[in-house]
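R.M. (postdoc): so does anyone remember the format we settled on? I'll just put the structure tokens first.
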């Protein structure tokens, strides 16, 4: 509607190790990226500990970060934060 060319990056994360290790069977992520400048413009997350990830994504949106910039950040493994790069 606003003329934004969006890329929608959807991931069914229910089988990822971060969810498997705690026995979670339902988890997913959808991240919206403006294709003209690679900026993250929205996100929907469902899963355990994903409150941590939505904070990072909210900050990225506020600061106008690109998916490449956020993907280059390092997160401890095995934490849910380490999943962010794969979601992007």
């Amino acid at each position: 509607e606003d003329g934004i060319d969006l890329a929608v990056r959807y991931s069914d994360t229910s089988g990822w190790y971060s969810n498997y290790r705690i026995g979670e069977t339902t988890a997913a992520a959808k991240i919206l990226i403006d294709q003209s400048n690679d900026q993250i413009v929205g996100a929907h997350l469902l899963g355990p500990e994903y409150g941590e990830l939505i904070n990072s994504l909210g900050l990225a949106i506020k600061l106008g970060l690109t998916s490449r910039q956020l993907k280059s950040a390092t997160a401890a493994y095995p934490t849910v934060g380490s999943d962010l790069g794969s979601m992007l």
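R.M.: ...and that's the designed sequence above, right after the tokens. Also worth knowing: Residues 50-63 form the longest helix (14 residues). The mean pLDDT is 92.
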